[in-house]
């Protein structure tokens, strides 16, 4: 399937720079799709991978277990909210969402409510490209409208209102969420949202108070509340997990991307004991109906442990705050660029939204001329730099985003 433009060929990467096969260096403004938060060739993560390779490459997770996966599951329970006590290690973010949806369905089945087979979410979201995940992505503005008629039809609330000046908390939206849930309560198994930041669906920020409302709604109707933190987990928004902005814990939490620092594919779906017990109940299926070949892969588990340790060892809050401050200043000039609709920053996320579709090849060329790699999409030119990006390089990234927006 040929692309519209030839991709750039990366020959090597180190720190926050990608070296192309023609010798050019580009500062990575994308953290390789938001995963490489420590940059490239990090000594601690490299060492963990070598150690794991000397032990074993893979061990099946059926009837066998191993220390790296046990340690990782223990660490994830330690750093996530207290109700989350059980861990399912999956092999990608999309698969963790599939697992989360299955948990919701099996929970309701164990409660004697097998007719509750739909999920509630809000428009504007993105949860992955596998089928259950696609069904809870935005049904119109997302990438999956081609599958309409085949995907399950879920219950969609309106897009959450923007939480950026001059917008304020919108209590009427909470009433909309509560009314929609009440209307469909008898057919809903759970609620799934990306907390605080909607990622690939539009890079929108929402008020954390809406998460507390969703928690109340889920409790009222005995729904499983799922937070998809695949993009936002591990510090990206300024809190370790985005839901921490609201002080709210879900029943199921999906994490991925930065979990391994971008080294290997790995994700996890954590859940409460109530969900785990229901899934294990004979009425709920007698166990989770999912078994990826590479779940709990020891190479990925060792690297994930090293990535979490490295993150918590450093002043990650200070790093993220510094990037956010620099992006706020550096993206300011974009507000005067013709065609720019909005400029917003949260944590180590900077977004310039246009009033038209981005000319992606032109925008990427403009960024490359500044020595930066960006990957705009739809009407957005955005950046999520590695947390270790030096100040001069953050400034360079901001200038590249402004130039790409002006060109695109």
TrEMBL record:
Pathway: Cofactor biosynthesis; biotin biosynthesis; 7,8-diaminononanoate from 8-amino-7-oxononanoate (SAM route): step 1/1. Its EC number is 2.6.1.62. It is an enzyme of class 2 (transferase). CDD domains: OAT_like. SUPFAM superfamilies: PLP-dependent transferases. InterPro entries: Aminotrans_3, Aminotrans_3_PPA_site, BioA, PyrdxlP-dep_Trfase, PyrdxlP-dep_Trfase_major, PyrdxlP-dep_Trfase_small. It is found in: Cytoplasm. Its cofactor is pyridoxal 5'-phosphate. Substrate binds at residues 33, 126, 257, 291, 375. Catalyzes the transfer of the alpha-amino group from S-adenosyl-L-methionine (SAM) to 7-keto-8-aminopelargonic acid (KAPA) to form 7,8-diaminopelargonic acid (DAPA). It is the only aminotransferase known to utilize SAM as an amino donor. PANTHER family: ADENOSYLMETHIONINE-8-AMINO-7-OXONONANOATE AMINOTRANSFERASE. This is Adenosylmethionine-8-amino-7-oxononanoate aminotransferase. The gene is bioA.
């Amino acid at each position: 399937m040929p692309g519209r433009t030839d991709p750039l060929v990366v020959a090597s990467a180190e720190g926050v720079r990608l070296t192309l096969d023609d010798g050019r260096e580009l500062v990575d403004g994308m953290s390789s799709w938001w995963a490489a938060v420590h940059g490239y060739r990090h000594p601690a993560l490299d060492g963990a991978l070598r150690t794991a390779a000397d032990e074993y490459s893979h061990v099946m997770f059926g009837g066998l277990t191993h220390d790296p996966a046990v340690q990782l599951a223990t660490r994830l329970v330690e750093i996530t909210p207290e109700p989350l006590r059980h861990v399912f290690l999956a092999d990608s973010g999309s698969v963790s969402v599939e697992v989360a949806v299955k948990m919701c369905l099996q929970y309701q089945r164990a409660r004697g409510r097998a007719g509750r087979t739909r999920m509630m979410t809000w428009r504007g979201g993105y949860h992955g490209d596998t089928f259950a995940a696609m069904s809870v992505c935005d049904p119109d503005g997302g990438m999956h409208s081609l599958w309409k008629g085949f995907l399950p039809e879920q219950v969609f609330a309106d897009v959450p209102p923007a939480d950026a000046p001059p917008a304020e908390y919108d209590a009427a939206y909470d009433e909309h969420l509560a009314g929609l849930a009440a209307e469909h309560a008898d057919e809903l198994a759970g609620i799934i949202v990306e907390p605080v930041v909607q990622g690939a669906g539009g890079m929108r920020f929402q008020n954390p108070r809406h998460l507390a409302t969703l928690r109340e709604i889920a409790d009222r109707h005995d729904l499983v509340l799922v937070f998809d933190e695949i993009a936002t987990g591990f510090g990206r928004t300024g809190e370790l997990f985005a839901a921490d902005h609201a002080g709210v814990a879900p029943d199921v939490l999906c994490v991925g991307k930065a979990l391994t620092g971008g080294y290997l594919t790995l994700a996890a779906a954590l859940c409460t004991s109530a969900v785990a017990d229901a899934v294990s109940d004979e009425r709920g299926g007698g166990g989770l109906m999912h078994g990826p070949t590479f779940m709990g892969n020891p190479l990925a588990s060792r690297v994930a442990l090293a990535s979490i340790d490295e993150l918590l060892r450093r002043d990650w809050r200070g790093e993220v705050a510094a990037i956010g401050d620099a992006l706020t200043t550096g993206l300011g000039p974009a507000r005067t660029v013709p065609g720019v609709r909005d400029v917003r920053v949260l944590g180590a996320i900077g977004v310039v939204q246009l009033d038209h579709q981005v000319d992606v090849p032109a925008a990427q060329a403009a960024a490359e001329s500044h020595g930066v790699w960006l990957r705009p999409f739809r009407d957005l030119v955005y950046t999520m730099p590695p947390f270790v990006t030096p100040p001069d390089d953050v400034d360079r990234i901001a200038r590249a985003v402004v130039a790409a927006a002006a060109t695109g």
